[in-house]
């Protein structure tokens, strides 16, 4: 007797391949179409996926949520995950977030978090705290990209830093889901990777808008009207 087929064969077969992370300007499937496909999930699986997706907001380098509140929410979400593979993927993502937070704190001149302070997630929280002064926080072997990320942060290369972190998140967890192709684990992995492609495409658009504004300001500065009181009016700016 043949074994039971994985539950989401049709769903996964309907999703286009994402390809390499930075090769696409936009995801190969829109958010609207992806959400329509995800309606095929059971209510229980859909709720679990939404909880995991809510943790992906750490991809934005400006992390505004209170750290203790975020960690409490992360632990609650992961505690409700049934799959060991998905728990491992979520853990890996949150450990990257923890290391990024440590980099930013130290760069801002902050001291190591006090013992017992809720500030990070995963297996390396205490190692990072104990090696706060080390360039790689003592975790360079586990996170070989940390040196490059530190350099990008210190040089003010936000795009370069974002790229490194997204690539690290893209690679993280792959080993945990090697045997999952058409089940819920595969769906989760696809959606989390889709969010990385979407994030990079949005970041690229935001960076382009900033570059355009800088070019516009430079053009105005070089204009004969630059010293005129009218230079900042919309009509003059548009003309420049």
Overview of this structure, please?
The chain is mostly helical and 240 residues long. The chain has one domain (30-239). The chain is built from ten helices and no strands. The protein has helices at residues 9-13, 31-37, 43-53, 67-79, 84-107, 125-130, 146-155, 158-171, 184-222, 234-239. α3 (43-53) runs parallel beside α9, α5 packs parallel to α7 and α8 (158-171) packs antiparallel against α9.
Keywords:
240 residues, mainly alpha
Summarize the structure in short:
This protein has 240 residues and is mainly α. The protein has ten helices and no strands.
Averaged pLDDT: 82
Class of secondary structure makeup: mainly alpha
Give the amount of beta strand, in percent: under 5%
Number of domains: 1
Q: How many helices in DSSP terms?
A: 10
Order of helical and strand elements:
HHHHHHHHHH
Helix content: 55-70%
Low-confidence stretches: 228-240
The biggest beta sheet is recorded as: none
Q: Indicate the overall shape.
A: globular
Please tell me how large the radius of gyration is.
Answer: 22 Å
End-to-end gap: 75 Å
Total beta-strand segments: 0
Write the layout of secondary structure elements.
Layout: H1 9-13, H2 31-37, H3 43-53, H4 67-79, H5 84-107, H6 125-130, H7 146-155, H8 158-171, H9 184-222, H10 234-239
Helix pairs in contact: 3-9, 5-7, 7-8, 8-9
